[in-house]
Sequence to fold (936 residues):
Amino acid sequence: MLAIKRTRRLDPDPAFAATFRALAPRLPGSADAALARVRAEGFERFAALGIPTRRDEAWKFTDVARIANRPMRPAAPVELPLERVLPYLLGGPRARRLVFVDGRLQPQWSHTGGLPEGVIVESLARAAETRPVALAEALAGLDDGRSFTALNAAFADSGAWIELPAGVVLDAPLQLLFVATGGEPPVMSHPRCILRLGDGASLSLLETHVGLGEGAALGNAVLQLALGPGARLEHDRLELLGPASALLAKLDGSLAAGARYRQTTVVLGGALVRNEHEVRIDGPGVECLLSGVAVPSRGEEADTFVRIHHRAGGSHSDQFFKSVVEAGGHNAFAGKIIVHKGAQKTNAYQKNDNLLLSDDSEVDTKPELEIYADDVKCSHGATCGELDAAALFYLRARGIGAETARALLIHAFAAEVIGRLGDPTARALAEQRLLARLGGGLDPALAASVIGEAA
Amino acid sequence: MATALETVKDYTGSEYKYGFTTPVEEERFPPGLDEDVVRRLSAIKREPAWLTEWRVAALRRWQTMTLPDWQKPTFPPIDFQAISYYAAPKQKERPKSLDEIDPEIRRTYDKLGIPIREQEILAGVAVDYVFDSVSVATTFKKKLEELGVVFCSISEAVQEHPELVRKYLGSVVPPGDNFFAALNSAVFSDGSFVYVPKGVRCPMELSTYFRINAAGTGQFERTLIIADEGSYVSYLEGCTAPMRDENQLHAAVVELVALDDAEIKYSTVQNWYPGDKDGKGGIYNFVTKRGACRGRRSKISWTQVETGSAITWKYPSCILQGDDSVGEFYSVAVTNNHQQADTGTKMIHIGKRTRSRIVSKGISAGRSDNTYRGLVRILKSAEGARNHTQCDSMLIGEHCGAHTVPYIEVHNRTARCEHEATTSKISEDQLFYCRQRGISEEDAVALIVNGFCREVMNELPMEFAVEARKLLGISLEGSVG
Fold:
């Protein structure tokens, strides 16, 4: 234990190397020399970087080694009945989607028909065949000094290559659904998504990570975004994992002048769910709005890590993250706005509000500013506390039972973020899961009216 | 707008005015640090064996430690063996009265604007002067003695009040706490000691003036303040140093202990030599300051105005142990040219209904970097704890940096924590508004900067507030261009 406390990196469990040796010949694109080399290099990099401990500033609040540094197995094919997946098929009847179970594409539930000309939506395995060189470049192109990104480059098994040429507006949402079934030893999957939007292109993306059952699983996802000038991306993320499964999701994005990126992440369940965002704003007129809510309970941990680089002036970024922490849950937030030299006229905001509902729970927050330009407006705020006694009293005084009043207030707190989900089906699912978590006999109609107001 | 900021440069065109050296004969150790140096130092000071061993243990601990690397300021490696760990004005004996102080030293303090006699009489401030490493004079001692207040140098306290020193020294900042605290524990040469007995409200502000004079030395003072039950004390410290091309190390440790219902107010105006406009020279101000609110309803309040030093790196902290205890931190940090500041506080809430308030104002100009780094930790036991933090940064010019790194860790549901921070520049509207009313640009800038810092300035005792306001202006010299 002392050794763990003192070192910033641990050597990865030897099982990783054995698994990589065994699996490498079967990974997508293994026949392509360039891809195989990038994967091998990724693994070496991972081994050299090691698993971060809490001594590593970026991982100060969560002990990832506990979950990620143990022998895991790649998934075996699983047959799932449709009804188990059905609740998670979002976006309405016109949505296109790719469904993965434990890192394997499920063609029976996936469809990407009727795409406008020039639009590419294909699974990672397919991209490894059609564009191995570009994929190898993309995998090698992201070296952020983070061991799990390197591990993903080595093992990338699922995910997608998505490209919209200039001016294309995709009318229906696109869903990427990742289902983990879990087991013992834990099942690991490594989705890698590459998403490129040309000038003025527009997409609404639903990213859903779902855990089925109680089994342990680790999802290690990497999403590389590039938005061209004036491109728009609506990005709804639902992370609904099982009590024993973990998700480490890294988002690396670059936004060109005038691009608009809106992301809303709702975390409801998961032993450890870590969402990392590194977004670079490279031109003026960019709008980048990141919001999220996490509701960890019963020993669950949610960890949000944000870096927004304003590398050009005249843009706007906003971070709005909330958490409701109860029954031994733990929420961590570490967000940072970096205004680079010369990025004048930047507006950047950051807000982190936490509701702490039990004494065995923990909230850690670290909202950071790093500013190298003088003509900017940057601010941040963070709060932490329990439910407002006056608000509870107000409801009780109007004849609402204690449990319901409590649930109503918590619900209203979370609804501010859930209401930002762009897709109504995603909103409804998040809503339903939240109510199930809260219990307390909250009338869905009452809740819906609150959501309506918040939205 | 450009002209407004140029005016700041013009009107603050004065150089660091405390940069003179005083030609006093001094006694010093050759550079280097080992067990022998520590033992010799301890012997010179005729310390009891337990303290010598305490120092040696700290040295051994220090030898196993490495410099931290998480901080924002960067500096070339420090050669700890090139520093002389003891330098003292040569004097046969400790002066018996103020008249016996070396006239050169007297003149130094006069130049600094604190005529010992005058201050004693007029301001009623009891002052302890630490010149390089040793305390040269303590004024007003007799008057304090009548009330039972002990205010003396720590070396004296070791001789005269060993039981108090032994009980409290290192009890707030243990020798192994951090790299510089360990170094200080091994080699501290002097500093101030205050003990306020039960129920006594110290009738005057106690003050220490620190001065680094000798070249090639470091200053390692140690301050220990104990406020017994129901007592109150307000303590001020000020510091200056000569202008030199080398970087000098100042690694002090300050420990405060407040027992039941006691209150300690600790104010600092730090004006060590900041280096020249190209970043050459200046003091490395690496200080550990920590107060323990041990008693119920005790209160510790830190107020600091940091304008000097090439690098300021310190976090005056409060451990809120007693139920209903209160911790406060008010800070103005101004950096200009190539100065770097990484400062803030830690509030550790342990007792029930403990409260803390943090107000930090950072002003960066020139090519400087100014970081607020703070921790608010609320432990499970801290039922009903409350914290409010506000950090505001102001940037002057486009080559400086302002950073905010707050950590908030909450383990109790009944606790309430709020943190807000903003970053802005001097608003053109505000400047225009002042100009329109006939206020010159230079006065307008001073007005706005002072207004920005007002919340903190209001916490300073009167004499200090005046000095601090002047310092703010001077520190921003040449800040634009």
